[in-house]
Design goal:
Helices cover 28% and strands 22% of the residues. By secondary structure, it is α/β, with parallel strands linked by helices. The structure holds ribulose-5-phosphate (5RP). This is Ribose-5-phosphate isomerase.
Amino acid sequence: MATGVPKIDELKSLGNPLEDAKRAAAYRAVDENLKFEDHKVIGIGSGSTVVYVAQRIGQYLHDPEYSDLTSKFVCIPTGFQSRNLILDNKLQLGSIEQYPRIDIAFDGADEVDEHLQLIKGGGACLFQEKLVSTSARTFIIVADSRKRSPKNLGRNWRQGVPIEIVPSSYVRVKNDLLEQLHAEKVNIRQGGSAKAGPVVTDNNNFIIDADFGEIIDPRNLHKSIKLLVGVVETGLFIDNASKAYFGDSNGAVEVMEK
Ligand SMILES: O=C(CO)[C@H](O)[C@H](O)COP(=O)(O)O
């Protein structure tokens, strides 16, 4: 690797084991998957782990050995936070309308099962994350190792499947999830102390978190939820990711691949 881009095994601890784990996963994922000659359009996801993906790509941009190629990269965001990550790292911003075909996308996940099926949407960005990730030829997950399910989705992530819905449909969708799809618990996600009332997504919609317990058949559950009137998208990402990088606080990274 060229001078200028910090070597992974020489990185100093950030003083927070979880952040060290996230950074380890993200840096390894970028270094092993970003092909400077082939990849021109890059999807940048949302959340706290993907911060280190944008940072790593930014390091390559500022290294004279790579800057000719990296300055031509166009990065496609998955929401407001992601857009700022791109700008803060001085990367070139593009839109999915301009670049409907993405070469590679990186994003975090809330849970990853043994078949690389995902729950996403903990940060309420699931619609644009799905738009970007399913437009990408290669989709790579970066996460700390807590996100790896021992088997099925719904084991570690107990908050429920995030579902983006049209605001006026929230009562109808809530009832349908409980009565037709037998969800155990359904909540309209609230802004908490930061906002009185529901979270409003980047697309001006609401988020429902629907707990189905352990999910044995995520594909069918996704299809059934999508058929409900009012549902825009689900946080079940089916057959979408090709690899997941799970970081540990000691810098070790495990890679799960299809
Ligand atoms: O799906 C997401 C946002 O909608 C995030 O990618 C997911 O919540 C993981 O975030 P983090 O990297 O902070 O754990």
